[in-house]
Specification:
Length: 375
């Protein structure tokens, strides 16, 4: 397979040491943007239940097999590192060093390398060597405790807030910033991307609002956490939901008029009557189906939208018109984002099957030792 990346990162070479969760997603984002990402998979796989043929986070990449625990394994990775701009790994602290591919080993071969480290707890701290997953990381940052109704447990936001927002995206930001530094100063560095750090960073505005007295430190009591009756979700007559975000006065005015409660809605600024307002809004939404309410609000400035499932989302007229989702290799999936006027990105290859690209990587990166040994 030839390298066809045409995005803004075309020409950037990335080595990804195979892992799970935020590391592969970060590498996918770099690959989507045109980087030549070579994933180093371990023989036998990583034990995940996901069929590699459907693992979209490995699209636009190539894969080679290297056993890092073998005598020659670390040398093969260092051969790639010598020719790379970036390396991404998601081991627990100290593991890469014990395997012989830690920052010191890699920088000895390539001083300009950006060494990206993706963990939950970070490289330092009392829990750094402890196992964990997204839900625990976002729990201790305060982010999980913000999500959900006031009278119920915190709502689990899949693994989007921790793994991908607080983890992958911050790793990519760090890698790109360090890459810019390497190209201007001529020296690489280590990027310590911890999910706890990134997720905490995401709550910056809320901390400011707490300090200003504009946010209560409890669930379901604030403007943006479902406590506000004109910023939340409401059930329709068919058991589906509409999302309302009519925060500004002019949008709220349009909302209550189209909803049909303009004359009976209590003053929105009267917090003591927010419960009454919520009941009025809820009762009205329960009189029609989601499709009927969608037709009422579509194209208006009421800031109301239907809550769609993953399967429904690609068919939303706006997302369909923009091509927000794409079909590639029989898999419907999100298209690369964001968009670039001069260097557009695209899905050019499906999930990289473990070890499928030894020949092309060996040739393109001039690392013949990656080729399987002849019997």
């Amino acid at each position: 397979m030839a390298v066809t990346g045409n995005g803004p990162l075309a020409g950037v070479r990335v080595v990804e040491l195979a892992g799970i969760g935020p590391g592969p997603f970060a590498a996918m984002l770099l690959a989507d943007l045109g980087a030549d990402v070579v994933r180093v998979d371990r023989p036998g796989g990583g034990g995940l239940a996901v069929d590699p043929a459907f693992d979209v986070t490995n699209r636009n990449k190539r894969s080679v097999l290297v056993d890092l625990k073998s005598a020659e394994g670390p040398a093969r990775v260092l051969d790639l590192v010598e020719r790379a701009d970036v390396l991404i790994e998601g081991f627990r602290p100290g593991v890469a060093e014990r395997l012989g591919v830690g920052p010191a080993d890699c920088h000895a071969r390539n001083p300009e390398l950006v060494y990206g480290r993706m963990t939950g707890w970070g490289q330092e701290g009392p829990l750094a060597h402890t196992a964990g997953h997204d839900i625990a990381y976002i729990a201790v940052t305060g982010a999980l405790g913000m999500i959900g109704s006031a009278d119920g447990p915190p709502a689990v936001p899949a693994n989007l807030v921790g793994d991908y927002a607080g983890g992958s995206l911050y790793l990519v930001i760090g890698v790109l910033a360090a890459l810019q530094h390497a190209r201007t100063a001529g020296t690489g560095q280590v990027v310590d991307a911890a999910i706890v750090d990134g997720t905490a960073h995401l709550t910056a505005m809320i901390h400011g609002m707490v300090a200003a007295g504009g946010w209560q430190d409890r669930r379901g009591a604030n403007l943006l956490d479902g406590g506000c009756p004109f910023y939340g979700t409401y059930e329709t007559s068919d058991g589906r939901y509409m999302a309302v975000g009519a925060l500004e006065q002019q949008f709220y005015d349009t909302f209550v008029e189209l909803l049909g409660i303009k004359d009976q809605a209590p003053a929105r600024k009267d917090l003591a009557r927010w419960g009454e307002l919520r009941e009025a809004v809820a009762a009205r939404f329960r009189t029609r189906t989601r499709a009927e309410w969608t037709a009422v609000f579509e194209g208006t400035d009421a800031c109301v939208a239907p809550v769609l499932s993953l399967g429904e989302a690609p068919h939303h007229p706006h997302l369909a018109a923009r091509g927000t989702f794409t079909d590639f290799g029989g898999i419907t999936q999100p298209a690369p984002a964001p968009r670039f006027s001069a260097t557009p990105a695209a899905v050019s290859s499906g999930p990289a099957l473990p070890g499928a690209h030894a020949a092309s990587v060996a040739a393109d990166w001039d690392v013949p030792a990656l080729l399987p040994k002849e019997a």
